[in-house]
Structures are given as structure tokens and as C-alpha cells.
Amino acid sequence: MDVRRRQAKMPQSVKIGADEPPMKPNNPKPSDALPLPLSFTNGLFFTMFFSVMYFLLTRWREKIRNSTPLHVVTLSELAASVSLLASIIYLIGFFGIDFVQSVIYRSNEDAWDVEEEENEKLIIEDDSRMGTSPATTLGCAVPVVPLIPQQPTKVPVTEKPAPIITPQSSEEDEQIVNSVVEGKVPSYSLESKLGDCKRAASIRREALQRITGKSLEGLPLEGFDYESILGQCCEMPVGYVQIPVGIAGPLLLNGAEFMVPMATTEGCLVASTNRGCKAIYASGGATGTLLKDGMTRAPVVRFETAKRAAELKLYLESPVNYETISVVFNKSSRFARLQGIQCAMAGKNLYIRFTCSTGDAMGMNMVSKGVQNVLDYLENDFPDMDVIGISGNFCSDKKPAAVNWIEGRGKSVVCEAIIKEEIVTKVLKTNVAALVELNMLKNLTGSAIAGALGGFNAHASNIVSAVYIATGQDPAQNIESSHCITMMEAVNDGKDLHISVTMPSIEVGTVGGGTQLASQSACLNLLGVKGASKELAGANARLLATIVAGSVLAGELSLMSAIAAGQLVKSHMKYNRSSKDVTKISSQGKAHK
């Protein structure tokens, strides 16, 4: 396409003298400012932009794979970053020049000579982009309003927050903080390098604040024994979270009184459970019975054929081989005692569910060691066995599963009480008939409609979680430990209420894990189940499971009564809502910052 610009007509008010050279039209081009041709310059910067971007993305991917901090930059990466910045500045400037060019061309009434008629459409589109009317370009006499270029949208730029710098107690600590920030010293290695867990947490905390630019003010650092969690409870600590602990009780259970510690941030929970304990106490107490005690682990193994998998299944289930397998399993610990083996097949894959007693420990590590011993032993007779995983989810740990609901896992407990009619009326503010009907329609029928799996209760999980956090249990095991069915029935000619909770998989321990921490150990001591039992192995853990079930019984009784009496919303509005003005707190926080 050959397009030539005609010389613009001179205004009549301007006269040219005889000795003066004729004036040339003032049509500056932005590209005249470039030292190189425009097409060459554009190609150069576009090539540099994409090449540098590819190089940096490749380097970043390698750093992520090698766990190298992204902020550690080599000389070549620094040069590439500078080149990338230069190309970006040029491209931004280039698009800005286009906008200026469109304004200049719109102010001049230029005309275009078109020699090839078949490219007329392209010329119109180019002129429209430059703000010139197509009708004017083609020489038509129709007056047209020139197009107004769209103003560029301003994109808000999010500035990176300034690093928060807290002066360190010594120059050495300051150097270590800088090394962590620069990626020269891994954060996870501070404890081993320094030999001081408290100092390591303090340095890690400061480095985190400088890297993120976010303050950790409000997250306590002082007043915690960081040595006690090294290698067993938490890695790379920067502080600890405070959770209030309330007391519900006394809970009268099996003739003994217990003050139940509950760590929670939910208002009404401790108060409601305490009311349930009061009703149970006034009615003569509750009775808890341990039904089963055995932790499980289920590896998955695979064979070339389903026939071979079936042969191992028959071998494990044979009474002839059970004694030998028990001896191999029980070598793992003086407390581990194999109780049974349950197998399930899926094609040529075999899932083997081992159940064993674990003393006062929750027992996951203990049973896993015993399972590994058995698998090593079985390889002698089944060399073609391929162990896919030590856990095949047939255990089943930290997941809602029907096998736990039916077969049980950990401690299986049933707890019951008979609440007298006058207690239901005076303490619980409702009546027996209303409670029985509500339990049937809510906990049983409603849960069935919802397709619940082990959730035939009002809020067993609330009490289990609170007691677990207070006593150092694994909070994630609240999932299967909260499996519970609550039953209510009118007894004694319909005057009194019989209430029970059946919980088949309460997973607790009084030794190991978080139970040895000072706060959690104090809560266990309050219940009288701290550490291992000196009289009978596993007695403390079994008693703790019974207390958990008794606490759930109290919580279920109180909440169901509140719902039956229409008090649930009223009580939560009173005790579970902050009376503070949030807007004032927010403004004060901003002023403080």
C-alpha cells in the first residue's frame, strides 16, 4: 500500500515574503526523537523483553525446585532485571507516544491520498485509531465530530510495606537476622546452630517481620519453654497462641468428681457444659463404661494377581499363624499387644487393619512400629508382596470413616445418666417429653436426612475439641473422636429422662506429644490422669476417654435443653457476642500503628 501525506494548506492570515523560503508544514513525528529507526528499536526492545523474561522465569523455577530463596540474586540475574526494567520503561513510553501522536493528528486537518482502492478499509481503521473521521479522510463533505481518545485508566500501585526492624540485643544477633533475611542461613537450622531455642525463635520472628513487612505484635514470645517442643511438637516456632481455659464441673462420673478443663474461644460452651454437669450431679451422677481399647493401623500391599493377595489374606486370618504374627508385632514395645487383624481386598490390593493396645499412649507410633515388623516378616513367605504404604486409610486416621464408627478405634465408651424430672424443670428449664421428641427429630432423624456419618448428636465435637486442646491431645483426631450417637428416653413412667452417649473412637493419651507441655500437663494433673499409670498400664488414658464421654454427655444435655426451651439464640446473644465497639477498636489500632 502506497500512502503519501499531502502538504497541508497554509492559513490565509500568514503571508510569505519574497525573500523568505516557503514554510514547511509542522507535523512532528515522535519517532524522530529515536536514534534508530522505529521498527528496529521496537524489535530490539520486544526481543530483549521476552528473552529476559524467559531467562528470569527459568531461574525462578530452578530456585523453587532447589528450595533457594527467590530474593537471593546473582550478578547475571541482576543484569537481566535491569534490562527487563529498561524494556518495560521503553514499552510504556512507546504507548504513551501513540497517544500524543493521535492528539497531534486530530488537531490537523490532514488528507490521505489512496492509490489502492482495495485497501480502503484498512486506511479507515488507521485513521479512526488516530482520531480522524473516515468521512473527512475520503473527501466527503459531511461534517463529522472528531473522536475523543479514551483516557488511560490509572491502575493503583500497591507499594511493598516497609520492613519492620526491631533492634536486636547484640550485634551478633543482628548479623544472624540479616543472614536469614538474605537466605544465607536457613531458618529451620537456627536451633541447631545456636543451641538456644528461645534465641532461635526470637531471631526467626524478627527475620519474618522484616521479610514480610508485617508485625507480629500481639503474638507472645516470652513465657514459653521452647526447649520442650524441639523435635517433637512444633518446628520453626515464632511464638505461641493463647487460648483461654475454662472449668466445667464438678462432673460426677462413676462416683468420682472431676473438674473438666476446656480450652475454647466460643462463648457459652463452658457455661453450657457446666450446667449439664450440675444437672447430672443433682441427679446422682453419670456412669461411664469402656467397651474397647485398641489403636489401629492399616497398610496397603499389592501383588501381581488377586489370587496372591487372597492367599495372604487367608494366611493372616488363620488362627494357626496368629500367634507367630503376635510375637513379631509385640516386639515393637513392652506396651503394644496385638488384638486382632482385619483384612479387606480391592482387586489385587490388600488392606490389613491391625488393632493393638498401647498403654497410656495414644499409640499411633507404637502400632506403626509393630506393623512394620510384621511386614518385614511377611516378606520371607511373600517375596512378591509390594508394600505401597504403611497407611492405606483403612485405619482410618483423622477422617470420618464408617470403619471407625462400626469397629471402633482408640477407646470405645458409653456414658449414661438418669435426670430427674424436677432437675429437668428447674435446672434445664424444659420437660422430658420435649427433650425426647427433639432428640428424635434432630439428632436421629435430622442427622439421617443429612447423611451423617457418626454425627447423630447435637455438638459432641465442641466438647471433644475443647478438652483435647486443654489436655494436649491431637486436635485433628477430633474428627473420629467426635463420632457419637445421643439417645434420650423417658423412664420411670415418663417422669425422668434417660440420656446416653455412645462414642466408639475416642483417641487419647496421657503420655507423649503435647501432653508433656507445661500447660497441658497441668490440665491432665487437674483430672488426675497426668503421665503413665503406675498401677495398671493404660488406666489413665482409659479414664481420660471416659471423662471426655461424660463431658460430652453434659454438653449434649444442656444444649438440647436450651434448644427445647428456645433459649439458644438468647444465650448466645448474651454470652457469645462482644460488647466492644469494633469501629473504635479498629480506629485505635490504626492510630497505634
Can you offer a commentary on this structure?
One of its GO terms (biological process) is triterpenoid biosynthetic process. Strands 5, 6, 7, 8, 9, 10, 11, 12 and 13 form a nine-stranded mixed sheet that branches. Strands 1-2 form a two-stranded antiparallel sheet. Strands 3-4 form a two-stranded antiparallel sheet. Helix content is 45%, strand content 15%. The longest helix is centred in the first third of the chain and has 33 residues. A hairpin with a 2-residue loop joins strand 3 and strand 4. Helix 5 crosses helix 7, helix 8 crosses helix 18 and helix 15 packs antiparallel against helix 18. The protein has 593 residues and is an alpha+beta fold.
What is the number of strand segments? 13
Query: Quick one: biggest sheet?
Result: 9 strands, mixed
Distance between the termini: 64 Å
Rg: 38 Å
Total count of helical runs of at least 4 residues: 20
- pLDDT below 50 for ≥5 consecutive residues: which ranges? 1-6, 8-18, 99-145, 589-593
Helical coverage, percent range: 40-55%
User: In terms of structural class, how would the helical and strand content be classed?
Assistant: alpha+beta
- State mean pLDDT (0 to 100 scale): 84
Question: How large a portion of the residues is in β-strands, by DSSP E?
Answer: 15-25%
Shape: globular
